[in-house]
Amino acid sequence: MEGLGRLMKTYTYTEKKDTRSGFGAGLAELGRTNPNVVALCADLIGSLKMEKFIEENPERFFQIGIAEANMMGIAAGLTIGGKIPFTGTFANFSTGRVYDQIRQSIAYSDKNVKICASHAGLTLGEDGATHQILEDIGLMKMLPGMTVINTCDYNQTKAATIAIAAHHGPVYLRFGRPVVPIFTPEDQKFEIGKAVMLTEGTDVTIVATGHLVWEALEASKVLFEKGITAEVINIHTIKPLDEEAILKSVAKTGCIVTAEEHNYLGGLGESVARVLALNNPTPQEFVATNDTFGESGTPAQLMDKYGLNSAAIVEKALNVIKRK
Amino acid sequence: MPNTKHLEDLTIQVRRDILRMVHKVNSGHPGGSLGCTEFLVSLYNEIMERKEGFDMDGIGEDLFFLSNGHISPVFYSVISRAGYFPVEELNTFRLLNSRLQGHPTTHEGLPGVRIASGSLGQGMSVALGAAQAKKLNGDKHLVYTLHGDGELQEGQNWEAIMYAAAKKVDNIISTIDLNGQQIDGSTDEVLPMGSIKAKFEAFGWVVVEIEEGNNIDAILKGMAEAKSKTGKGKPVCVLLKTIMGHGVDFMMYTHAWHGKAPNDEQLAKGLAQNPETLGDY
Description:
- Chain A is built from 14 helices and 14 strands.
- Chain A is α/β, with parallel strands linked by helices.
- In chain A, helix 10 packs across helix 14.
- In chain B, helix 3 (37-47) runs parallel beside helix 4 (72-81) and helix 5 packs parallel to helix 6.
- Chain B has a single domain, classed as 3-Layer(aba) Sandwich (Rossmann fold), CATH 3.40.50.
- In chain B, 38% of the residues lie in helices and 11% in strands.
- In chain B, helix 9 (216-228) links the parallel strand 6 and strand 7.
- Chain B is of the alpha/beta class.
- Classes of the chains: A alpha/beta, B alpha/beta.
């Protein structure tokens, strides 16, 4: 590993935390710094880690009850009068359940609502497929004008939460339930639509989002031991996509693996494939769920069963290199 | 005393606008539009406190949200004649590249519109958010809404109705256009809703009934009563009994003209019943 450190940038962590806590911390900070920020929740305050904001700004918090459609409409209305509403519920109830409300009252009406969605994907775990949405990135990215962000760790989620308040327009911010390594810097500058290069390499590009970013870094270590250098890119913003970063990388590596906790249909991988098809057709492999619902299990068991881990990324990387 | 003569003249002129707009493009919704003409004319010209010009936030003025967006013809005519955009622009209703889309939207930047509507049942939630923003801003002005009665079949309304009372949103006056008609027939045929008054009251709203919803004096009186009940801890509902197609005899008392435009002959007949008052666009 001595040599590895010399030749390749490696990432370590000392602490694990859930990304939803990063959202809670970011929201609390916004509560102190931006008087226009208001928060709404549909009976999931604890799950969304919104307690601090509520404690410090009770007058700027709206408990909607179990009524997500109403929450999206109220959020749209609060923008009329200059507020910046952050809605909080699970990803499933933030998107699929309220698609038409988001489409008409928020996206088409160009309202400055921040849809903050926790428990996205399989890592919601034991509650099972009713709550594990794997289609939300697709649903949200299809809406004209919607910004779609999926963060990878506590620090990045906190930074993203703060950054989206300064962006005018609807945003879908996706994060999750389980504790995951914190490996991005606490003081990072979060730029919407700007990919983050994590490791440089020449053999394969790995573009990952959300919880799969850490898995991609783990995969890059395994690949390095096999003599393969992988360029790992953290795509926290799926829309607008940092096309330049992707094209620049594949110009060097000639192949790409995309990795996400989402169905391959409608996900990051499809967005990347379009960019490549238009500009530089490149062999691509997808680490994503394969047009399926999830099921009950621990987050780790589910990620293993559905092939959303570092081993799957390594396998796809080896495959795609052969296709060059 | 309000100048009801002017409101009467404006009502007739707006009826003409509605008929001409939907006739020109052979599409649109004249029935509900005609039924709500007296109400919207009164609201914009006598009841609401409005600032000059238009800004999205609407701080320091009353706001209106149209939830049943398909009655866009009456909405566009009333807001253009209230000064939000040139009346000539009514000529572009439903045409390509127009700001006057089939259903109202903010997307094309039409002044006077604050939310897209058309997919039913969403307007009350939006209005509640705007009403709560007014409270946060210390703005004492009111938020008005209009909904179809058939629209109340959408479940989101009842989430909003429950919320409004629970959170004491008492700076909103939501009017229900009780014309008893929807696309497939009368509301009683399609999905009987029982007593809408009892439902609102059971949900904790104050209800004001306007029996003659096409009579300007009755509207002004009823809305004044509704306004007097705001600020007392409860949201206020106005049940406005209207006649769909009001003012054009062959369009009245039927759902047939919900979403159908008159032909040339029917247009001529409708216009003859509503002679020009303030000038056609």
